[in-house]
Amino acid sequence: MHAQPLPLAVFALAALMPLPLLSLGMTYGDGWLWLAFLYMGVLTILLDQLIPLTAGATDGAEFPAADLLLVSVGIGALTLLPVAVWAIAGDSGLERGERVLLFFAAGLWLGQVGHPAAHELIHRPRRDLFRLGAALYAAILFGQHASAHRLVHHRHVASPEDPNTARAGEGFYRFAPRAWFGSFLQGLRAENDLRARASLPGLHPYIGYAAGSLAGLILGFLIAGLPGLLTWILLALHVQSQILLSDYVQHYGLQRARRVDGRLEPVGPAHSWNTKHWFSSAMMLNAPRHSDHHAHPSRPFPALRLPPADEAPRLPWPLPLACTMALFPRLWRRAIRPHLARWRPGVVPPKDTGA
Description:
mainly alpha
């Protein structure tokens, strides 16, 4: 059966639905917060499994409505972050359990929807769109991602030179600090190299990232004092962990070959894990179609294609579920080993390398 493309309205509904649920939850409490949390944590996976649909790609080069959706998500994320900090740490009237539930529900939306939108925005040629994406990363204290992802990850993906590519057998808890600090340093080095070749380099991007992060922390303190500051930091770490989990899963164990001249082979479909699950892909703005993104970084998300299963690795689970499994290193290694073996037949990952 020919796969039909998803209307942009499906992307918008899947991505934005949690925002009114969260807003109602911050106003009325328990039941609405549970709906928002279950939407992110359960409904997405159930719809992926109960409706076995593999969506096609939308044709066309221009998607002004898609950019409008990205801007809506970006502004929604920058609005949700301080409002959630107030509701969690301030005088919102929510019970303690409701504040905890809001922390996880808001963090899941920021990580699984806000991050894919910011990721799309930093690949846009328009400076205003790029700045919106970079501002969101700075707000979650992860501004270096706007530089490292474009300048380091896309160049060195699936190689030892990329800090955001997990090695076969490497557990997430070993990968995460290596990826965080490695991307910070390599992104800084890449930006410095660009500035050294520019006639008018302007403000260093890392200064902008630091200023944006500092502004967020000050806002958190102004909202609710020290509890607000700590909540902002913890919520940012929650979102960062999901970004790192996505990086970990989407390139786990895959490796580009080196040619006889020592250079890496070109990036191809076999160097990213993909998923065919329709609803989580819609909610995450087609982020699970990762191979096509690496082949065409500037391609708008509705136009991303799912490569055939014999050309690119596919995860048998929706991406959010795979990321949850990766939190349990032994479970993840055991589950992914037979799928990785197909793409790296000569490599048997270690059964246990710790966390």
